[in-house]
Amino acid sequence: MLLTITTTHQPATDLGYLLHKNPARAQSVALSFGQAHVFYPEATTARCTAALLLDVDPVGLVRGRKGADAPLEPYVNDRPYVASSFLSVAIGQVLGTALGGRSRERPEFADTPIPLVARIAALPCRGGEDLLRRLFEPLGYELEAAQHALDPRFPAWGESRYFTVTLRATTRLADLLRHLYVLVPVLDDAKHYFVGDDEVEKLLRRGEEWLAAHPERDLIVRRYLRHQRGLTRDALARLTAEEDPDAAAEARDAEEHEVEERIRLNDQRLGAVTAALRASGARRVVDLGCGEGQLLRLLLADSAFHEIVGLDVSHRSLEVARDRLRLDSLPPHQKRRIRLIHGSLMYRDARIAGYDAAAVVEVIEHLDPPRLKAFERVLFEFARPRTVVLTTPNREYNARFETLAGGAFRHRDHRFEWTRAEFRDWAERVAERFGYVVRFLPVGPEDPELGAPTQMGVFDLSRG
Ligand code: SAH
User: Fold this and answer.
1) Protein residue whose Cα sits closest to atom 10 of ligand 1
2) Fewest CB atoms less than 10 Å from the CB: which of 65, 178, 187, 363?
3) Is 411 close to ligand 1, i.e. is its CB under 6 Å away?
4) What confidence tens digit (pLDDT) does each residue in 85-112 have?
């Protein structure tokens, strides 16, 4: 497997500074699946080519694998000879500095688009030349693809799925490497290692700045994550939300709690929400943006609630909730009452439709305006619970928090914090539009001028 990268930017040998590899020396690096070699077949001031050659050890790949149904299969596959996710691993490990867009000697150069030509032999393409073009051309590459015959001695056998691919663009080297890092395994569509949560992180990091707007975004995410639906949904939700829900949840814990601790606002809020849900007579309730499950715990302890569903977009929060609630060791009659589901409030979702009540506690301020609009319909038009209990910070009260500098929000992921008047306007408009009536309740110690730290709206369906 050979990747070459050529530039004619002058002096071309500066490519060595970007790659952190000296053009005068060949280098070999041992990786878990074989050897990577970096060398420069040409290095003049007019034109410089760096080569990354992977020498994948087919025997090493098999070692330690058990339960092979076809014992020879691992020895007679194409893995040692083609560009696959091994190439991405090698780029990450051998050219990590360049992939990260850093250069110690030439930081501004790393940020400069330069003429680059990348050539890969051989690239397996499930989806053929058509997909190859749909993946690279929207990113501004001029592409040449030479398809290889299955066996040149037997033309009747037809074409193989292997291509020699040449990509040309004036771009930053880091961008080229990120595109290859993500798109080579996508074309190959057969990742060699277990895909876990950190693959989502890698994909989002390498896809930053280009993946969200790519016309083939969904296919890229699905294939990169090896068709694992949970991870794919998570990644897509995060790409479309342009935010990191796990980080947001974590940061919320760290910052918001610090700010609010003194008054134990959190407990008061959860108590107020539980009381409002109870007063509504609801038996089947859904907690939207349930986070780590604090409200769910209170609901579970109250036998008035027969069916309890928690939904969140963050896998990590749901895992924490599952642990904290000890869902796996609950007795069967309790276990039957509660369910956690992964989902986004941006999309209408039949799983949350038709409940008696929904809680939306400290969630809306994480949604920026277009997403808030989508959420309004998802909740009030499609899910349409009889009662909605919704809380959000009262910005006016922030003046009372010593640690909040003038105008700062309680949490850095908050897209807005509303005054009482702003919340009232929003809630009344939504209620009016979707046929609910809304009343407002303060939560936490009330300041005569600034109001209470948390504002709560209780919406009741007024017509069918
Ligand atoms: N209700 C919980 C958590 C509030 S923090 C509590 O009061 O403790 C906001 C939560 O909303 C986070 O867990 C976050 O992951 C979730 N969230 C943010 N955007 C979301 C979306 N689009 N869909 C579903 N959940 C979302």
Assistant:
1) 289
2) 65
3) no
4) 888 888 988 999 999 888 888 888 899 9
